[in-house]
Amino acid sequence: xxxxxxxxxxxxxxxxALCPELILFAGLLLLILLPNLGRGTFRIxxxxxxxxxxxxxxxxxxSSDPRLPAWIATFTLGGAFLDVLYIFSQGLERVSIVSESGxxxxxxxxxxxxxxxxxxxxxxxxxxxxxxxxxxxxxxxxISERELYNNRRQADFYILMVTCALGMSVVxxxxxxxxxxxxxELASFSTYVLVAFLKESKVGVExxxxxxxxxxxxxxxxxxxxxxxxxxxxxxxxxxxxxAFAESGTTxxxxxxxxxxxxxxxxxxxxxxxxxxAPDAYAGATSPVAGVLATASKAMGMIGLIRMLLIIAAPESxxxxxxxxxxxxVMAAIxxxxxxxxxxxxxxxxxxLAYSSVAHAGYMLAALTAVxxxxxxxxxAGDASAAAVAVMTALIFHLVVLVAFKLGAFLVLSILxxxxxASSLSSLGGLAKREPLLAVAMFIxxxxxxxxxxxxxxxxxxxxxxxxxxxxxxxxGAEIAxxxxxxxxxxxxxxxxALLMLINSAxxxxxxxxxxxxxFFDEPEExxxxxxxxxxxxxxxxxxxxxxxxxxxxxxxxxxxxxxxxAQSLNYNW
Amino acid sequence: xxxxxxxSGLSALMFVIGLGGAxxxxxxxxxxxxxELMLNAANMQFAAAAVHHGxxxxxxxxxxxxxxxxxxxxxxxxxFLAVYGQHETIxxxxxxxxxx
Amino acid sequence: xxxxxxxxxxxxxxxxxxPLIILLPMMGFAVILFLGRVFNGHPFWxxxxxxxxxxxxxVMGASFxxxxxxxxxxxxxxxxLDEIFEQIAWVNTGIWNGGSTTEPVxxxxxxxxxxxxxxxxxxxxxxxxxxxxxxxxxxxTDPINDNRNHRFYAEFVLFCAGMLGMVLADSFLWLFIxxxxxxxxxxxxxxxxxxxxxxxxxxxxxxxxxxxxDVFLMIGLVMLWDLFGSLDYAxxxxxxxxEIVAENSAGTLQxxxxxxxIGAVGKSAQFPLHVWLPDAMEGPTPVSALIHAATMVNAGLxxxxxxxxxxxxxxxxxxxxxxxxxxxAVGGITAVMAAGIAFVQMDLKKVLAYSTMSQLAYIFxxxxxxxxxxxxxxxxxxxxxHYIVVVAFGAALFHLFNHAxxxxxLFMASGSVIHEVHHAHHHLHHGDEHDDDxxxxxxMENMGGLASKMPITATAMxxxxxxxxxxxxxxxxxxxxxxIANAWxxxxxxxxxxxPAMCVLLGAAMxxxxxxxxxxxxxxxxxNTEVAAHVKPTNGWIKTPLxxxxxxxxxxxxxxxxxxxxxxxxxxxxxxxxxNILNGILYEMEHAFANSDAFFxxxxxxxIFLGAVVGPGIAMALYGGKLxxxxxxxxxxxxxxxxxTWVNKRFHFxxxxxxxxxxxxxxxxxxxxxxxxxxxxxNIVAGFSNKVAEADTEVIDGTIKAIESGSQxxxxxxxxxxxxxxxxxxxxxxxxxxxxxxxxxxxx
Amino acid sequence: MQDWISxxxxxxxxxxxIVLLAFVSNANESMRNRLSNPIRMATLIFSLVLxxxxxxxxxxxxxxxxxxxxxxxNYEFTHRYTWIESLGIHWTVGLDALSFPMVWLTTFLLPVxxxxxxxxxxxxxxxxxxxxxxxxxxxxxxxxxxxxxYVFWELTLIPMFFLILMWGGADRKYASQKFFIYTFxxxxxxxxxxxxxxxxxxxxxxxxxxxxxxxxTFDIPxxxxxxxxxxSNGNWYLGTNIQKVLFAMLMLGFLVKLPAVPFHxxxxxxxxxAPTGGSMLLAGVMLKMGAYGxxxxxxxxxxxxxxYFQLALMIIGMVSLVWGAIVCLGQTNLKKMVAYSSVSHxxxxxxxxxxxxxxxxxxxxxxxxxxGIISPMLFAVCGAFKHHxxxxxxxxxxxxxxxxxxxxxxxxxxxxxxxxLPLLAGFVAELxxxxxxxxxxxxxxxxxxxxxxxALVLAITAAYYLWSMQRTIFEGGDETQPPTSLNGQPxxxxxxxxxxxxxxxxxxxxxxxxxxxxxxxxxHDWTIQIFEGLILPILGDFNGGA
Lengths: 574, 100, 748, 546
Description:
The complex is a heterotetramer.
Chain A: E1 5-7, H1 14-17, H2 19-33, E2 41-43, E3 50-52, H3 61-64, H4 67-90, E4 95-98, E5 104-108, H5 110-130, H6 145-149, H7 153-173, H8 177-195, H9 202-233, H10 238-248, H11 252-268, H12 277-284, H13 287-312, H14 318-344, H15 349-372, H16 384-420, H17 431-434, H18 436-450, H19 456-473, H20 476-481, H21 494-521, H22 536-554, H23 557-568
Parallel strand pairs in A: 1-4
Antiparallel strand pairs in A: 2-3, 4-5
Helix pairs in contact in A: 2-4, 2-7, 4-5, 4-7, 5-7, 5-13, 5-16, 5-22, 5-23, 7-8, 8-9, 8-13, 9-11, 9-12, 10-13, 11-13, 12-13, 12-15, 13-15, 13-16, 14-15, 14-21, 15-16, 15-19, 15-21, 16-18, 16-19, 16-22, 16-23, 18-21, 18-22, 19-21, 19-22
Chain C: H1 20-39, H2 43-48, H3 53-75, E1 82-83, E2 88-95, E3 103-109, E4 112-113, H4 115-139, H5 149-168, H6 172-190, H7 197-228, H8 233-236, H9 239-267, H10 276-279, H11 285-294, H12 296-306, H13 308-312, H14 321-343, H15 348-376, H16 383-428, H17 455-469, H18 477-493, H19 498-523, H20 530-533, H21 540-554, H22 556-561, H23 564-567, H24 581-593, H25 598-622, H26 638-651, H27 656-660, H28 662-668, H29 673-720, H30 726-747
Antiparallel strand pairs in C: 1-4, 2-3
Helix pairs in contact in C: 1-3, 1-5, 3-4, 3-5, 4-5, 4-11, 4-16, 4-21, 5-6, 6-7, 7-9, 9-12, 9-14, 11-16, 12-15, 14-15, 14-19, 15-16, 15-18, 15-19, 16-17, 16-18, 16-21, 17-19, 17-21, 18-19, 19-25, 25-26
Chain D: H1 6-25, H2 29-58, E1 76-84, E2 89-95, H3 99-116, H4 123-142, H5 146-155, H6 157-167, H7 172-199, H8 220-232, H9 240-257, H10 266-273, H11 276-301, H12 303-308, H13 310-329, H14 334-354, H15 358-389, H16 400-403, H17 405-418, H18 425-444, H19 452-472, H20 496-514, H21 517-542
Antiparallel strand pairs in D: 1-2
Helix pairs in contact in D: 1-2, 1-4, 2-3, 2-4, 3-4, 3-11, 3-15, 3-20, 4-5, 4-6, 4-11, 5-7, 6-7, 7-9, 7-10, 9-11, 10-14, 11-15, 13-14, 13-19, 14-15, 14-18, 14-19, 15-17, 15-18, 15-20, 15-21, 17-19, 17-20, 18-20
């Protein structure tokens, strides 16, 4: 922290540091303004003089183009994404935004940047591919394309997307638990509405309501947890909390407080048993939105969990962290198993993907558990901090590549959805005949989700398992070389989480493959034999996902390094 | 001055009532109210803690939390309206097209 | 312990071409098969090349000539255990025997020639050639074989290659390899008429039954390898090596040899693995002649004969006599059993098949006795004992020779009969649609009185039968008498051997009966059917080999006189070494008819009485009689016919009682052995394997399926918790919160 | 030295396959039909080039690798590119006498498979997939990096999955998924073993090729070298417990792939449903991956554990051998019978391994190779049977010798080769296994009753093969009526490409049966090397041997 450039809000370097967020903000303004530009005039009171002030009235052809908000949002989000990439290429600076009262509010470093990359990338893809796929009327209603486009609600949708991105980036940057929480709420509210966006359909509003109401309860619990922590520590600064926890973290108040906060974030990452609303929400929302929920929103929740973990995993407080590790470990085990089992019997591909994302949350929780266990036994700790970094790298890497194949899978479904629903597996039937490349793309996403080489999903799972095993094994190899004797039971119990995780991914192959089988084997549903709806944007987005999935899987070294750098830039206390 | 511990206790009570109400009541609006109760419990706690620690940040937190609660209500009611439009009920038990 | 370092002694230049004896037929196989595929149906191929028959003949002729050259080279005085062909290192590998490094092991191929080799080589090459000639006359004139004879000839030459290779191989491993090739060919040849279900199942039965023996043989070989570290004759027969083995593991050696003997039992169709041989008559007759008389069944005998160096080894003195007894006893049982079954067979070839079984059993008994003598007598130092052993062994091998010649001839003759009967039937019912379905050309019921119609065939049959019966002065007499005498000699020493000795004695009489019965039913009396009355003499391709073999069989006394019986066993007696041929013959005569030992003197006449008088006498009393009016047999057969007519008239008796007895029924049903085997196959093997297959799907795969369906139902339970009501979701959030709190509370 | 040569061996087929598939993927039906012939030719030519390369490698036309006498943990044609540096992953390839025969076998089977299934439907997609399958298989065998090994190990599943799913039989949906999930499940356990092994390396010593992030390496030669040093010092590499656990985990993955009873039930389903080409490659090469992996990893790294688990392996091997054979006897489905016979033959490999004798290992290696030539022929025959008679039931078609002499001959040849007829490739391996087994039993004082299994199987194998031949090749007359599935059409014999493929396979079965030394000598040398270098020092610690 000491090596960070300290910047006051709106002080020197503020614009530089928050450039992506400012791009978003500008885009947001444009989104609000541009679609409303029209031949609206303003009559100067008392005169007949009408000044054209361009707001309202009959809109121009350009501003009434329904694709305009989509393009703006895409360019905004994409611009922010590219800006982050540009910043990466220029070399990172560590910038800390500190309030006048000396409270550290935001911290820009590799960690936050890479999460910005995730958020902006996922949302940009979602926005781009929603361009000609967004349905505002009930599924299957007979409405002309023209009519569909000519709808102002398009603008609302993209505005919400941009605000969502804004909220998420605040979460990534926050150095104060409450700031984080506000960012989280901003993003959450946007997603609630996005989920409920199909208000003309029963499932749309229902999913929105469930997601909202359960989410609100969870965030209510979380907020109460925050208040307990504040009561205990007198501040919600991470640094302060961490120090306080190291000192007196074993008392009930902070532990339960963190527990409540965990509930709030647990909902976001859809960890069991807080995941129940997630399948409903995914099933009711449009596919790109569901994709965002499964990737960006999940990453956002993970940030919260990571922050919590960093607070509790300080080296001296092994008692408290031990409790926490058991808690997390149990949660991880339940989550991954539950998700996989539920997905096993699910006939709705979107629900299936939702459950699979529950399972993935389990995997990530397992990784988190391992991070927490980094210094479990000093005797074999060895390069423990490097090991912890490795697990964190794996976690971040997983979140990054998840965008490619999870979102990609949802995008493929979105094409089918715009054709007439994708609520049962049979809607995928004969995809290989109808559009082979799309089927191949879906196949790649599926085996990547399952963790089959050489896809990115394999590499990420491998990294997670390697991280867990590394923590579990610690330095035993060197000890053995020096004549030490170790047995299987000497390894940390997180090793068994790795085993469970692998068994789970074997189970998961079952339902992923079922999708493939349906695509390549079954005949198309009646009335769906013809070619799929056109639209190049969504296909370009899918192509981007496929390329990322494959390329990262085959040559992921640079991305791993990037994630490693991000992991190292975390504010460790060790 | 009242001991902040009492305030904390009250807030804990409110929180429990809110949480309990959230899963016992069927009407979405009542559930929303329960959620508000939980948020307010947090607010009280923040306030009590601010007093306890003599730290003004707590007050700021409270203000923000109130804003959050407000927008939450706005969004919630809007969604409920839409739900009513489609389902003609806002009973949580009856709005269950999506399941399993 | 590797056996590859063998000095190479090449006697003359062409000797290095000895492998061609095997390779030529092997190449012939490929050539005939290929040309047959390409030119099938082509007139030149069919008429001039006899669908490959001529090619086969050339190949087998060349092999025969090469074999003769090899034999003559050997007879010129090249003696002793040696190899004339450098070994090819076929398989190189290694074992670890507990030392600090691994030991190299290698299996090579080479050629090995000794007395036994030479004799078997002659038998095989000679008979294969004759049978080849016969086949051209037999196979190519039957329209049923049109356009598929090339398959026959290809398989035929491959079979010959296998037989010749087995004889020439220089190790038990290669013996086994060629042995298996023969097995394959016999399978193919027996199943030549693949469209007949009976042929198909006979082929399967033959292969499977011999395979069971082969499994034991293979394990025996593996054990033998373990004892000696090699399977090369040069190594395993080495006296010093045997001494080393004898010190520690004579018992194991006996087991190994015993297991190998089971292989021989299968191949030579001895009880209890004899069931395949009669069924194998489904193959074309040349195949029967080739496989079941002349060559393949001799493989088992060859294998047992090859074990002689173990039995004869000084260091193993008295260690292997149990095995010798088992060999003799198996022979004894089979000799009587097969002869008994032959009593009631109506099928000409089946009689011959059981006769084969029975005669092979004689040879086994002879070998068993010889091996017993070699193992128990101090024959290395005692010259009397030496002589006894050599003669005993020689008698068995000589019987092998005689039997091969005679039985080959008999089969060919029977083939000739069947061929012509079939033709006559075809000719008679030309154009009839009902055709072959209910007419059995092999049944003796459809023959009778053929002596005048097929003189050469009848003569061959007569000579062959006489040789098998052991009629004095003819072929098999010289060897059979020796076998029986030796069996009794051993029985006097070891009472266990009384059993095989009694068996062979009884068997002599039985042989006399069934062989006579066969000849009489076929050739004497009046034709039984209209078909039999219209049979024509056979063609030249068939006559030639018969003609040759008649002389070979009749001249067997010459071979005996040349010292065949002594020489075959041992290095000390060389061919024509001690006596000139006349002295030899006189010696043999004296030895046979005027033995100085009273016991053996009487025994000889008992054997002659039983085999030449009692057996044929009863047969004559029951079957045959005068030929049809106007038919006249050749002069040399007339006495036989006349004698038969007289006996038939004078001593004829009614044997209905016997024919209706349960014993006859049992014999007709082959003593129910096949039935038991079938039952065992169906009930035990098939039943068990079905159960196992069921267990495989139900239990092992069922577990997998149960896991799958279990997780599916678990999945629906899990998913049913997602009720759809947001209230429940909130409840779960609350429960989760509570659980976390309690967990922390509990720990903190 | 053309060390780079193994790169195109793996890369070209994969890339070509992907390019061709991309090329046809968006073509419509008629376009695809038109494309199928040129693509077929292209894949054939390509696979022949691969065969030429590996054959050239054998005859030292490429490089001058002396295949005989490669010492343990030394490799020819090695090449190393950095792949994922942070984790210590390299594209490391190399060949030794263990892998080279397998690579050659793969390249040999590719053109044969293409020829044998010349008229497979939807060829424009089928043939590139076959090619890609070949590339993945070669990748498994040349990989000298744990990561690369695992990647290719799993990569083979994908083309095979599609081969079964898209060209398979009626129940292909179930079979393809079962195949994929079953083997995947086993291999993830193996993966955990590999990773645990990875982290049990000692990172303190400067490790070659170590990852910058992890400090450990995936490099197989390096790990093997370390293990060898540790093992030959009289210690168990990684200690007794860990070594046993890791051995068991790796072994599990390989046993399922092999497959050994009771992990075999995926195989019959996969084989029965797979198309001919898929079956040929599956049985010919893919099963061998299991045995190959055993030698490459658990045996090379954990010889002590091998000795510890010797009895278990022996039991599994025996059970596979006997169980597979007996189940064969109870089958009425031709292809299922052949599939179970593979299980039985894989038992031979396991027994060979469990003898811990150089001869047993050479037998196992040669069995891998011989079965790799024989079993494709078995499946080619089954495929032709199915193709022409539309049924897989034994007895559905009788008297084949009459109307389909080529198929009948091929069938008989293949069956005979599989039941271990001398002078055909399988016999040598079986014989060596028997001798090694007996030698081992006698030397170690194990019970003679272990011989009962192999003895029984020798007979049972003959029984089921003969039984099936009796009901297919033989028996004409009324029972030869073509199956109803033919709808009265005349019965065709196999087509010329099939004949050619059968001839090639038969020829090589004979070549390697008559002249086994061509392949066996290098295997022998390798087993001696590994045995003397790795096992002997260890066995010396425990007992005095025989």
